[in-house]
Structure formats: C-alpha cells, structure tokens
Amino acid sequence: MKEYQTITEISGPLVFVETDEPIGYDEMVEIETPSGETRRGQVLEAASDHVAIQVFEGTDGIDRDSSVRFLGETLKMPVTEDLLGRVLDGSGQPIDGGPDIVPDERHDIIGSAINPTAREYPEEFIQTGVSAIDGMNTLVRGQKLPIFSASGLPHNELALQIARQATVPEEAADEDEEESEFAVVFGAMGITAEEANEFMDDFERTGALERSVVFMNLADDPAVERTITPRLVLTTAEYLAFEKDYHVLVILTDMTNYCEALREIGAAREEVPGRRGYPGYMYTDLAELYERAGRIDGREGSVTQIPILTMPGDDETHPIPDLTGYITEGQIYIDRDLQSQDISPPINVLPSLSRLMDDGIGEGLTREDHADVSDQLYAAYAEGEDLRDLVNIVGREALSESDNQYLDFAERFETEFVDQGFTTDRDIDETLDIAWDLLSMLPRSELNRIGEDLLEEYYTDDEEQEPVEATAD
C-alpha cells in the first residue's frame, strides 16, 4: 500500500492530495499525523493527479508532513443483530462502554437502490400511540413521514415518545407471521450534549434501548461525520429489516443539521451554491436517504422512516422542508401556537398529511370507522378554526348556535384529542373512541362524512346539550 506525503492544501474539513495513480470515488483513507494519530477520511473528488478527502474526525493537527494511505475500499458498516441495545457515535464506534462489535457482515453504507418492481406497496398500520398521528395522519410500514418542527419546539420529546411507543398491533402481526419483530434505529445529528443525555436517560429509563440501536453525532463533532451518520443508520436498518426480518422504524433528527453540513462541505469545495447557499445536488442527496425506506417483495421486514427537521425561521418554503416535502409521503407539523397553549404534543393536524393513510386503515387494519371519523374530524376542526377568525371580528355573541358548537368542538379537540402529554400511550381504539365522544357534541345531521351504519353504532346523543342551548338562548 502506497503512502503519500503530498498534501497540497487543507481547507476546513477537506484535505487535498497529489497522486500518481487513479483513486476511486468514496474510497476510504487513513491519514497519520506527525504525532502518530490516525484519522479516517473518504475521497470526495478524484482527478487524474489529485484528490479531495473529507476527514471525519476533523483536520486539526494535520499538516503537509502527514502521511496519506488509500485503503482501496469504500466505507462499510459492521452489522449484526447484537447491535440492538447498543449506543454508537456518529461514525459507528461504540460509546456505551460495551464490548467491541463482532460483525456478521460488513455492508457498504451507500446501500443498494430497491428495484421499483420489487417494492411492496406500504399498507400495514404502525401504532405510535399518538392520537394526532394514529387517528388523522396514520403511519404505515415502509412509509417515509417527516416531522416539520422549528427551533424551541418539543420535536425531540415527540421523537422519544414514538421510539418508546411504536408497535405493530397484534392483529397485523398475526397475519404477518410471528417471526417479524419490531426495532427502532435512532440517529441523532448535530445535537447538544444536554439533548444527548436526555435521549439516553429516556431510552434507559423506559427500557426502549433493548430494542433500539442509537447513533449519536454531537454538535461539537466534525460536520463531515454528520454526512455519514444517516447512512450508517439506514445500513443498520436495512440489515435488520431485510436479512433479520425486523420491522424497523428509523428516526433521524435533525435533518437540518445534516443539510448544514452539506453546505459547509460545499463551501469548502468552492462549489457554485444553489438556493440560499445550499448545494444544488441537495435534492438528490436527500432522496438517496429517504428512498431507502420501503418493503421488498418476498422479505418479511420493512424500513419506515420518520425524519425530523427544524424549519429555519419557521419558514416552510425554506429549501430543506421544501425538498423534503417533494420526496416524502406527507408531513407532521409541530405548531408554535399550540405549544404556547401547553398542548403536547403540539401537532397541527390541518396542514399535516399522510399520503398513504387511506391504504393502511380500515377493517382488518385499524377499525372500520377510522376513515370516516378522520374525514369528519378534519372538516369539523377546520370549520371551528375558520370561526375563530370570525369571532375576533364580530364577537362570539353574533354567531349562531351551530357556529358556537363548532367553536366548542375545536377547543375540546385540541385539549382532549391532540393534547395527551408525552407519556400517554393510546391504542387506536382509544383514539377513535375519544374522536366519537367529540363528534357526538355536534348534531347528527352535521356529520355528513360518516356512513349511517357507523352513526347508528357509535354516535351518542348528548342529553345535557338541550338545557345548555336553552339557557344560551
């Protein structure tokens, strides 16, 4: 193996080296500093006589006297079922004080694209225990459903709640053969040490760590490491899903930090920037990650993704949420106004969407009334929200009796259906029963999105409603 001492330039996380032989793109590199320390890197750009290397551990201490060795292989993740219960850093090294990982296999972190003809359509329900998601923006196995949040909002708490509570309901599991188990692969990118401690305390306290693999990239870790963390996460998830038959839920937080790392590396490479300084290839890069969710024909397991991103300046037209929305199958919005009203999780269901929901609910999957109830909840809450704007202009006294019922519905919808705290785990039956209690506030004639047979079975008249209306008159 040749050793080069021909470093010509060091720029941010990049090292430029002159070479006299072809070097492969993405090839792994070892750089030995004059002090004897070894750093790992990856070829980011290769020409006939020079290469650009991104150094995972940062370039501090590297100078022109450092030695560079090209290893002739791409970065691989050592994978084994024993990774469950382990905590790794952003480059895949154990940081939990446990034994070294003895891999069954080593997989390329870039992964292989799923052949479109081999993809199975996602249509099995995953229960998160969160009513605003399960009831109105249902997650299905193999889907990619991002959470759009903003700085200061409790997206981390929601991520932990989903990681703790997510299950495949027994009915679906029985149909699917018993050997399919549920696992969570959690990837944190650019988080603070305080956030990392909160994550780990929660995982250990609740026992969720036993069925999880956790990757931690901290804010003071090199930005370059942030670009490989989600690929290590997804490689681990694919191994557990497609070779060990697990149903794997991948949670990635925060994708905004990942995109900032792309921008930093692009600036160091002096690339022509795209929108707001982000690389022009960011759409392709994000698609490479998000499209690794799915199911494969003939395989029992599945990979489901919940990427979390914080929208800079609460701007949903920012390139990161904008491009993510194009690639993924919906979004869950965390709302600052609901957060200010102490509603948790503060999910705003009106702009939220799960494009695959209709195929993952109904009889045999959740409950036969699920679709109609969800549609009616959306309609009634939207009506109540519109009337709130009108109240600010004309006052509540000027509204009709029916309008006041919708205003009361919107209030109770937020405080009883959406607001459940970060420790309450509701199954889908409980979620739908709460929905029926709320819908029963409204006159039966207003529930025009629900079939008559379902109204007969679930609708309950509020006997106390008439006296209240009489005193209001």
Automatic annotation (TrEMBL):
One of its GO terms (molecular function) is ATP binding. Component of the A-type ATP synthase that produces ATP from ADP in the presence of a proton gradient across the membrane. The B chain is a regulatory subunit. One of its GO terms (biological process) is proton motive force-driven plasma membrane ATP synthesis. Has multiple subunits with at least A(3), B(3), C, D, E, F, H, I and proteolipid K(x). Transmembrane segments: none annotated. It comes from Halocatena salina. Residues 359-459 form the ATP synthase A/B type C-terminal domain. It is found in: Cell membrane. This is A-type ATP synthase subunit B.
